[in-house]
Amino acid sequence: MNTLPLGHSDLRVTPICLGTMTFGEQVDEHDAHAILDQALERGVNFIDTAEMYAVPAREATYGATETIIGNWLAARPGVRQRLVLATKVAGPSRGMPWIRDGVGMTAADIAASCEGSLRRLQTDVIDLYQIHWPERHVPAFGQLYYDPAKETSQTPLHEQLQALARLVRAGKVRYIGLSNETPWGVHEFVRLAEQHGLPRVVAVQNPYGLLNRSWDNAMDESCHRLGVSLLAYSPLGFGLLTGKYDQHAPTEPGAPQDARLARYESVRKQRWGRPEALAGARRYNQLARDHGLTPTQLALAFCYRSWRVASTIIGVTSAAQLHDDLDAWSVQLSPELLAEIDAIRWQLRDPAQ
Predict the structure, then answer these.
(1) Which of 2, 5, 92, 351 could form a disulfide with 277 if both were Cys (CB 3.0 to 4.6 A apart)?
(2) Molecular function terms in GO for this entry (predicted)?
């Protein structure tokens, strides 16, 4: 895999990024280190994490993933310089008081979270520091509609950007990014950066895959014209697009009980647990088989080869999954197959939006 730049930055990343939110929950430290080693051996130079990981989020595992990665880096001198390391400051702690006090995300909160991540990661600098979800109310994580009546924002975007700028000036962060953002949010962050001479957003980490292509409805044009890269997460729809639930739904006997959707009710309550998402996944999975591909190959190749995607974030719980996902890089989708994918989307739209 060649590397490519993220937005208007000198960060060069592989088009596949190792997501780590399973580390510390489904994956113990020993196995996580083995997965990290093998990803590095296969040429992956991009690792993404977050202060709130592992997932599903709970107080006992807050920060565990960063700690596991930090221990891995500390035991391997010289590896840090070969990697692009990304992490995230959590947005407002709605329902998660262990993240921080209060309902907002102040400049002081951003600074404190960055210090905590640096300490757990055992590094002097974070290459890409992202806001995990907006401080303001937005339709995200399965919500469909913006509702101004739910607005609770307390920290203006300009103040958030100034806080991030201080981290960049201090040498603790190289570049900044967003996650779970909207077109307005991206435009406003870029506008404020250009108006006030502050750091410019280089990437946005949003869901993107066969079951959720909401990015294609305005975010694609916005970010293309602004020069902001997409980091696509959940390309396999929390396992729905691997085919593991084609015979048995996550809660039915016969489903793999160690998988996230079967194991965690909190995950099933989100967009991936919708009956429409499972039905859509089964359509795409059958399409893959009809064309001699595995469901995983179809889903990942769709993201890997999209002009919209700079890097696809893969989350795994085993080395076998890692290698399957990396091997899918060689798969090419024909124009005819892409047209069939679009035909299914025309019928189903985005069932896991």
Answers:
(1) 351
(2) oxidoreductase activity
